[in-house]
Amino acid sequence: MIRKISTKQLEVGMFVSDVGRAWFNHPWKTKSKYISDRSEIDELVDFGIEEVYIDTQKTLRPEQTAKLSAKLSAKDFPYKTKTRVPTNLHPNEPTKPDPVSALEQELPKAAKAYNRALDTSKALVAACRMNKRIEVDAVQENVDELVDSVSRNPDALTALIKLRRFDDYTYTHSLNVSVLSISSGKALGLSDPELKILGMGTMFHDLGKCRVPAFILNKPDKLTDEEFVIMKNHAAMSAEIIIEQKLRVDDQVIKVAKHHHERMDGSGYPDHLKGSDIPYLATICGLSDVYDALTSDRCYHKGMLPHDALKFIYGLRGTHFQPEWVDRFVQSVGIYPPGSVVELNSGHIAVVMEVNHKDLLSPLIKLVADPNGQLYPRPKLIDLERQENKSFIIKAVITPKKAGFDPSYYFNIKGEA
Ligand SMILES: [Fe+2]
Ligand SMILES: [Fe+2]
Prior knowledge:
Distance between the termini: 62 Å
CATH architecture of the largest domain: Orthogonal Bundle
CATH class of the largest domain: Mainly Alpha
CATH superfamily of the largest domain: Hypothetical protein af1432
Radius of gyration: 22 Å
Largest sheet: 5 strands, antiparallel
Low-confidence stretches: 72-99
CATH topology of the largest domain: Hypothetical protein af1432
Order of helices and strands: EEEHEHHHHHHHHHHHHEEEEEH
Number of domains: 2
Number of strands: 9
Bound molecules: fe (ii) ion
Strand order of the largest sheet: 8-7-6-5-9
Number of helices: 14
Shape: globular
């Protein structure tokens, strides 16, 4: 029997048949599952989900619950299972002043490109809302700059989209999806012309949302069937706007816009395309789109930490997205993207500066605070892969709010001009 109950009444062993939210708007991989651990209830509460539907006939007995917990923890997110043993928990006080990484050298240039593209993104939305002509050459110029920056150092722009979260989602989303797509496209070995087409398609992918009523776009609760139909129409509408305006773009740009919500198993829209029928550039856009939607703060929910968003996307491997594409996406974004604040096994706090694309668990970090939380005046750069004695390992990701400092302070991000 299906019953609606308060999330706080949930208990381990109960079967949640529906969390009552769209798939991208709750923290689980699926909408229904058994509660095997209290942390799964906390996840729902933290996400602001107050009520869920349970199937009372499926509630487990205590001995069945114990079996289920053991089974599920054994098949947890595979990247979390690699661990190393610390041997030295007391590093020397940093001595060299102001160490600078390769990424920090690229950041001012990347910031300039990012700021310009953000202005263009705002102009795009404004033009679309007022039914005015889109300046396609300006968008192309910005996309070319983004591709150049990614070619010099793929992590600089990825760091920026993580650190600069203060602008409105409406404007930053398309730009962020563009940056993530160009950077993962680069990791997949796409050529520069392909990356530029991908950049254009992603900048335009949600244009059609300007024709979706705001009350539907910003609705915190589950959309009704009619509202969902209108919402889903935005992808085809994005393509239509490009065609209506006769913009001089490659045909693939239109396909990225139209098919970014298609999914490998045919569950996507608008054409329910399957597998390799989905244009590959649209698949890259789709992955970046889900990642940015999950990690962004919205009016109705707090963004997930990148690590948790990647875990969620990993759960879509083999159903919504081809496994090898998911793997490459994870590899290019990094489990700990630049700008992440992490706690080490020693209790020190560090900021991730660069991803180690060969060993995602061992990025280049800056040690910024001692185990008592005291900030170092001259933070030391540590390459977790090459450190002597393998002293430090990352224990947990923490929010900048909890750490009590702004990680962007440790990057050279000016670039306005
Ligand atoms: Fe979309
Ligand atoms: Fe989108």
